[in-house]
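Please describe the entry underneath.
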Amino acid sequence: MLNNLDDRERLIVFGGIGLVIVLLFVNVVIKVFKFRNDLTEELIESKGNFIAMDRAIKDYNFYRSLKTGEEEDANQIFAKLDTIMVRYALKEKLYDIPKDSRTTEQRNYERLSIEIHFRSVVLQDIMKFIYDIEMNKQLNGKVTNLNFRKVMGKELYDVNLRISSYSRVKK
């Protein structure tokens, strides 16, 4: 079939075939490059999803413990508070923990309030302590009251705080 063509016609046919092959090759390269970029973007997005999913799991566990009353025993809460206080060297500065109080709210929930009094503590350590309770959810509770006074002439503070933990009333 190619034998019946002139040299110029053969050159045009081979040039056309070469052009089609080059276009197919470029098309494949472009698709591979686009696929690679899409995978890179998906990987970056999935890293953000893991952080959001981890936060959602922490929130879920926190609210599940509220619903089921997982930490209704005051001894468990005191043990966790003790661990957090030791971590920030607040145990030595502990002045007093008066008796805890329990109250019923909205007939479905019981609130356990624990007051803690520290003397001559660094405010930064107290903020870390509160951060662990509030944000890191190392305790099923929230700080509901915080009072502090500066000790004269020093960067130390007397701190009183109240931590409240809610649990479902057992029927």
